[in-house]
Description:
heterodimer; A: alpha+beta; Ribosomal Protein S5, domain 2; 5-stranded antiparallel sheet; 10 strands; B: CATH 2.40.50.100; CATH 2.40.50.140; 3 domains; 16 strands; 21% helix
Amino acid sequence: MGGREANVVLLDENGIRSDGRKVNETRKVTIKAGVLKNASGSAYIEFGGNKILAGVFGPRDVHPKHMSNPDTGILRVRYHMEPFSVGERKKPAPSRREIEISKVIKEALEPAVMLEKFPRTAVDVFLEVLQADGGTRCAALDAASVALADAGIPMRDLVCACASGKAADALILDVNNEEDQAGQADMPIGYMPNLGKITLLQLDGVLTADEYKKCIELGLEGCKQVYEIQKNALREKYFSSGDKD
Amino acid sequence: MSENKNQFVLPGDTISGSYEPAQNVILNDNRLLSTAIGFCEINDNEANVSPLTGFYIPRSDDLVIGKIKSHTSMVWEIDINSYHVGILPAFDIFGKDYNPSKHDLSSKLNVGDLVAIRIVSGDTARDPLVTISGENLGKIDSGELVKISPAKISYLISKHGSMIQTIESSTDTSITIGQNGLIVLKSESGSNLDKIIKVFKMLDSTTDDSNMDEKIQKILDENN
Lengths: 245, 224
């Protein structure tokens, strides 16, 4: 999104990235749970320059009825970018990319949510990208997971997500928009930290086998950092100060 | 393990110790994991998490308050603030002699009417069956309806309902609590009603349960 910038220095001689971060540093992440009154559960995330709102509804009756499953509840995810979320106006209709991201986020959340307890129902997750700055699918997944927990949907674990990648021949954590556009690889990872299971793994770019392994390790470190922020957001809402653990 | 008793937990948090997994707890690879945001308690070798958020899950014998949504020739469909509608069969009111060609369901209960009902079957395979026959059940003709989170109801009726009894006696109000988070208040005094509504709203918005009895008493004592 936003077009390529020529002559951008992705990594300087001191190992500092274009936005001033070290290679193994994430952007600033803040999450707030329960921001929408009318949704069953909600969350707002700022992940660097990304600003995303997540709302969860349900479990509720499935419409159209033919989509309902008599054995389990179903999860439906809509990832949507606002027309003003990027530099050049984005058409509000769902694009091919948005449909793909909705699908991968849904599949990343499904191992965590326990919808088998609620057959013939649907849980709807709405993700609105208010401002995009690279890595929206990971940020949206982080917000969706907090919103689902806020809605009281039974979950085996929270799902945390962070991307790693390669730019200027170096492996980097939390790829931003410039690095996504001009870098060599981008690998979004979704992870259930208590179960130790990866629920989302994509790779856009080329990595050697060794780089691939290191990239996953680096991405998981980022996921664990985001997980702590997710937990704090929920503690802040439900346990007042978060210090009752 | 004593350190995990009475602890706040999030989904995925480990509950150490060897207990039987009960409400909102699962066993995964010999580890007990919480599946909800709540308060972990160990009772009789069972690990339980009392949820702080969530929706109403219909269970047999629960008393709930519902609103008539629609009816067919055989049943009423009742909104019970859950993911399925409650089904009230026509013969529950008209008896065994019910005949769709002779009896009119809308003569007894209309769309929008409030009813106190009991869940007969909370089976998830079909919509929960409810009954209107029984003590304290039936059409609710008057009163103020208040809605709070169903997760808060267990707190409200804990200690054998002593909190509700205190509120009822100090405000001369009749309170009918539905397990589904709907509450009906009946009082002659508008100011007493306002106080009780304030209590329930405070209970609904507060996540910190400490000194709750004192906080409630303080609201009830206002302007007395």
